[in-house]
Design goal:
The chain has 394 residues and is of the alpha/beta class. It has helices at 79-86, 96-105, 108-124, 140-151, 173-188, 206-218, 235-241, 255-264, 272-278, 285-291, 311-322, 326-332, 335-339, 367-370, 390-393, and strands at residues 3-13, 25-34, 37-43, 52-55, 60-63, 65-67, 127-130, 132-133, 157-162, 194-199, 222-227, 246-249, 267-270, 295-297, 357-360, 377-382, 385-389. The strands form three sheets. Strands 1, 2, 3, 4, 5, 15, 16 and 17 form an eight-stranded mixed beta sheet that branches. A seven-stranded parallel beta sheet has the order 8-9-10-11-12-13-14. A two-stranded parallel ribbon has the order 6-7. It binds zinc ion (ZN). Zinc ion (ZN) binds next to loops.
C-alpha cells in the first residue's frame, strides 16, 4: 500500500470530535495517508516516513466538503427564469415542471455527461462527497433512470419522486402520491439510499410527506425532508417527530420547530445559495446554533433556485448573512454534513477516516469566507488520490 505524507501544513482542520476547539486545529502539521485512509496526524516535525511526500508550503488543509443536498440529475437551463426573478417576479415551486420536461426528453448519456460535468465542478471547489437526488423525472421510468445515473457518481442517492406533482397529475395529487409510494418507489429502491419529499405549500402536505417517508422506510430507505423554504409549514416538526437524519432549508422556523430540532437531534441543513438566488431572507443560523441545534450547510445545486455547486460560496454567505463564525460554517459544511448523511468516515481527518481532503491556496480556513468568490482550492484528494490540482495533473 502506498503511503503519502502531506507535510508543512500551516493549518490542518481535523474536526476531531475529541478536540477542545470545534475544528480540531493543528498548526505546522503533517498528514500521512496509507491507501485510501488517514494513517497519522500530528506535528510536521514528528511525521513518520512515507513513500511519497507532498509539501503544502504552509497552506491550509481541511476535510473535503460534504455537500449533503444537491439535485444534479437534470437537463435544460432556467437562466431566463432567473433573469425574470431578478427583474421582480417571485419564485414559485412550479418552475420545477420546466426542468421535468427537459429531463424527460434527455437521453441517459446526456444526463450522465451533465452530472459528470457538475461533479467535476464540485471537485474543483473542494467537494469530495455529494448527495444527489432524483426529482426531475416524476415518472416510474424517469425517476429510476435518474437514480441509476446518480449512482454512478455517489452512494448517497435520494429518491425525490415527491418533488412536485407533475402536470399530468394536477387534478389528482392523491393518485400521484399513490404512484410515488407504490410503483415509482419500487423502481427507485435498487438505486436509492434515501427518500425525501418537498413538504411545502404548492408541493406536498404533511400527511403526504409522512406517507412517502414511511413507504421508503418500509423498503429500507432512510428519510430526509425539504421543509419551510417558502414559509412556515409542518415539515420540520414532522422530520423531528420521525427523528430523520436531516430537514433541509429551514428558512422560516417557529420556536416550536427550533425546540423540536434541538430535542430530536435532526440536523437543520441550511442552503443559502437558494436565498441568494431567489432574493429571499436567509435562515437564521445563529438562532439555531444558540438553541443547540446541529446545523449543516449544503449547495442545493439545482437549475431553478440555486444553480451553484460552490460550497465555499455557501460558507461565505453563512458567515456574512446568517451569523455563523468561519469555524462554524466550515464545520457545518464538512463534519455536520457528513452526519446529515449518517457518515462517520468523511468530514474529518482523523486516523482511520477516508483521506478526502482539500488544500487551500491560503493559510487558514477563514479565507473561505474572508476572500469570497476567489478560487482558493489548490488541490482535492478523494480516498487518498488527487482528483484536482497540481498533484492530479502530474
Ligand atoms: Zn433541494
Amino acid at each position: 500500500m502506498t503511503s503519502t505524507a502531506v507535510t508543512n501544513i500551516g493549518e490542518l482542520v481535523t474536526n476531531d470530535p475529541a478536540a477542545e476547539d470545534l475544528l480540531g486545529l493543528h498548526h505546522d502539521a503533517a498528514l500521512v495517508v496509507e491507501g485510501a485512509r488517514v494513517a497519522w496526524v500530528g506535528p510536521a516535525a514528528e511525521a513518520p516516513a512515507a513513500d511519497e511526500a507532498v509539501d503544502a508550503g504552509g497552506r491550509a488543509v481541511l476535510p473535503g466538503f460534504v455537500d449533503s443536498h444537491s439535485h444534479l440529475v437534470f437537463a435544460g437551463d432556467r437562466a431566463a427564469e432567473f433573469a425574470a426573478r431578478m427583474a421582480g417576479q417571485p419564485y414559485a415551486a412550479g418552475g420545477i415542471r420546466t426542468t421535468v420536461a427537459a429531463t424527460r426528453a434527455a437521453t441517459d448519456e446526456q444526463l450522465t455527461a451533465h452530472v459528470a460535468r457538475l461533479v467535476q465542478e464540485m471537485h474543483r471547489q473542494g467537494t469530495t462527497t455529494v448527495e444527489i437526488k432524483s426529482g426531475y423525472g416524476l415518472t416510474v421510468h424517469d425517476e429510476a433512470r435518474s437514480l441509476a445515473v446518480a449512482r454512478q457518481f455517489t452512494d448517497e442517492t435520494t429518491f425525490l419522486g415527491a418533488h412536485v406533482v407533475p402536470a399530468e397529475y394536477a387534478d389528482d395529487p392523491a393518485g400521484y402520491v399513490d404512484l410515488v409510494t407504490g410503483p415509482m418507489l419500487e423502481a427507485a429502491a435498487p438505486y436509492a439510499r434515501w427518500v425525501d419529499a418537498f413538504c411545502e405549500d404548492g408541493a406536498f402536505d404533511a400527511d403526504q410527506a409522512r406517507a412517502v417517508v414511511a413507504a421508503g422506510a418500509a423498503r429500507g430507505m432512510e428519510g430526509r425532508l425539504h421543509a419551510s423554504q417558502l414559509g412556515p409549514g409542518p415539515g420540520v416538526l414532522l422530520a423531528a417527530e420521525l427523528e430523520l437524519a436531516a430537514v433541509d432549508h429551514c428558512t422560516y422556523l417557529t420556536d416550536a420547530d427550533v425546540d423540536a430540532l434541538r430535542d430530536s437531534g435532526t440536523i437543520a441543513t441550511l442552503l443559502p445559495g437558494v436565498e441568494f438566488s431567489t432574493r429571499q431572507p436567509y435562515p437564521d443560523a445563529r438562532r439555531l446554533l444558540d438553541a443547540g441545534v446541529r446545523v449543516a450547510l449544503a449547495s442545493d445545486c439545482n437549475p431553478g433556485s440555486s444553480f451553484t455547486s460552490s460550497v465555499p460560496l455557501c460558507i461565505a454567505l453563512a458567515v456574512r448573512e446568517m451569523g455563523m463564525t468561519p469555524a462554524e460554517a466550515v464545520h457545518a459544511a464538512t463534519y455536520v454534513g457528513a452526519r446529515a448523511l449518517y457518515r462517520e468516515d468523511v468530514g474529518r481527518l482523523t486516523v482511520g477516516a477516508r483521506a478526502d481532503f482539500v488544500m487551500l491556496d491560503a493559510p487558514s480556513h477563514v479565507h473561505l469566507a474572508y476572500r469570497p468568490g476567489v478560487p482558493l482550492v489548490a488541490g482535492t484528494w478523494i480516498g487518498g488520490r488527487p482528483v484536482l490540482g497540481r498533484a492530479a495533473d502530474a
